[in-house]
Each structure stands twice: as C-alpha cells, then as structure tokens.
C-alpha cells in the first residue's frame, strides 16, 4: 500500500483487502509474533531508515501456493496461472 492511497481503491478490477503488518498484528497461535524494529533512522542522523522484520510465513493477508498445504504441491513458480492474481511476483 502507498501512503495517501485509499485502501479500497480498485485497480483493473482488484480491490486491496490486505491487513497492514505492524508489531502486534494478529497471527496464528503456533506461529511467531510479528515484530518490526527500527534499527536506523534518518531522524536520528542515520543515512537511511532501516528496520528488521520477524514474522511467520503465514502471517497477514496472503495467498498460499499449493506447496504450503499439499504434500508434493508446487510453489508459485510452478503455478504460472496464479501469478496474475498478485502481479509479477
């Protein structure tokens, strides 16, 4: 998402329903919690804003490739027809 762009903005028939990720975002009970920590900040005199991210791979709004829930399933690279849902990947 871009700052200043309404979340419900439709682009080519798509509506962004994603949940923003932030420290404390709801997660599956057996997955690690979301942690976002600023390690460098322009406001502190650093040359860039840099953060560390820690989260489980099933956190937030996402689509899973069959690899995540079917034994022997393909990853996204094996599901070319599904790539159109999320863009270029």
Q: Main traits of this protein?
A:
1 helix, 89 residues, extended, 17% strand, two-stranded antiparallel sheet, mainly beta
In short:
The protein has 89 residues and is mainly beta.
Our count of helices gives: 1
How many strands, which pairing sense, and closed or not: the largest β-sheet?
2 strands, antiparallel
Q: H/E series, N to C?
A: EEEEH
The counted number of beta strands is 4
- Based on CA atoms alone, the radius of gyration comes out at 17 Å
**Structural class based on helices, strands and sheet pairing:** mainly beta
Helix content: under 10%
How large is the share of residues in beta strands?
Answer: 15-25%
Kindly report how far apart the N and C termini lie. 15 Å
State the shape: extended
Biggest sheet strand line-up:
1-2
List the helices and strands and how they pair.
Layout: E1 10-11, E2 14-15, E3 35-40, E4 50-54, H1 83-86
Antiparallel strand pairs: 1-2, 3-4
GO biological process, one term: L-tryptophan catabolic process to kynurenine
Pfam families: Cyclase
Keywords: Hydrolase
């Amino acid at each position: 998402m871009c700052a200043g762009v309404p979340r419900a903005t439709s682009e080519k028939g798509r509506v962004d329903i994603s949940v923003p990720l932030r420290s404390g975002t709801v997660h599956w009970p057996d997955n690690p919690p979301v942690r976002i920590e600023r390690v460098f900040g322009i406001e502190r005199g650093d040359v860039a804003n840099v953060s560390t991210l820690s989260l489980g791979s099933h956190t937030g709004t996402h689509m899973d490739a069959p690899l995540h829930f079917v034994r022997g399933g393909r990853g996204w690279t094996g599901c070319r027809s599904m790539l159109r849902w999320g863009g270029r990947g």
